[in-house]
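tool_call: predict_structure(chain=1)
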Amino acid sequence: MRSAAPFRPEDTALILIDHQVGTMQLIRNHPVDDAKRYTLALAKAARILEIPVVLTSSEEDRVQGPLLPELAALLPEAAAARIRRDGIVNAWNDPAFRAAVAATGRRNLLVAGVTTDVCLIFPTIDAVADGYRVQAVMDASGSPFDLSERLSQQRMRDGGVVLTTTNTAIAELAQDWSTPQGQGLIGLLFSDVIPPIGG
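tool_result:
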């Protein structure tokens, strides 16, 4: 079986779903601080590579809360343009969200979402069904339960979604560490993603 072409900055968009103050507290399958750190690293990588970013949030005036303030500060334009869903669980069912993704002009989607078992699983599978290539960044996502995380990952795989991690996604996009952008990305990996030895 021939392997698929790698994701490249010129054909990829970053999609971050429901990284909100309240929803982040629902992550129990790995440390919340790690999920937050990896999410912010993806945002920084997108800035370095000039990759378009689509943000969406759900019911910010309820328990889900506002977007992570650090994320909004890193990506002020994307935060201002975020798609605010009024209770729609599957972001792909929101016409404004789908239109925002289409407007990037990119067919490769790098996606993270909180929670995996509710907010990430459905739009990633539906995007694949609509002809997008989708990689789900699992360490920048998370679920309340190990079981729901495992089953959601299996269902996404079955639906054609490729599962990845932040460091793998950044390395795939880098292509060449020796370029100015590659140097920025490798610095990001060692400052924000990979813990120091003994750390």
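agent: The radius of gyration is 16 Å. Proceeding to next step.
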